[in-house]
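@channel sequence for tomorrow's demo:
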Amino acid sequence: MDAFHQVFDTNVYGAMRLIQAVIPQMMERKQGTIVNVGSITALAPGPWAGAYSASKAALHALSDSLRLELKSFGINVMTVAPGGTKSNLGSTSASKYDQIHDWKYYKKYEESLRARTDVSQGPGSTPAEDLAKRVVALVLKKNPPAWFAYGQFSAILNLLYYSPLWFRDYFYRLVMKC
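C-alpha cells (generated this afternoon):
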C-alpha cells in the first residue's frame, strides 16, 4: 500500500498540486497550456503495472475534465501519452523486484515481472530528448492538440484499447506469460 500511495502521490496528486499553483496566473492572463504526462499504458493496462497504469489513467481522466473546465478561461490542457521512453525508470523499477523472494505466490512469475520493467527500456524505446522536443513543438503551436501519443508500443496499446477484453487478455497472457 505504501508503494501504491507513492505512485499516486507522484503521478496524480503531484500533478494536481502543480496545476493548482499555476491556474490562478493562467486565469489572470487568460491563456496558458497545462501539459500532463500520462502513459499509453493507461489505455490497455497489462500485468505487473496496475498501480502505475491506474495512476496514469486517473491523470488522463483529470486532464479530460480540466480541458473542458478551463477552455473558457483560455487555458489549454494537453495529455501526453508516451510509449516506451528511455529513462532511469526501468532500473528503478527493477530494484523493487529484488525483494521477489518474499513474494511466494509471484515467484514463478519473476522472469515476467523483471521483463516488464525492462520492456520500455529496450533498443526500440524512444529517447526522452526526442519525446521532449516533439512535445515542446506541439505546446508552442497556437492550438496545441488535446492528446499526443508517441513512442514505442503506442500503436499496439492503442489497438488493444479498442480490442475486446478477451483478445487483450489473450495477448497479455501470450506476451507476458502470466
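heads up for whoever presents: The mean pLDDT is 89.
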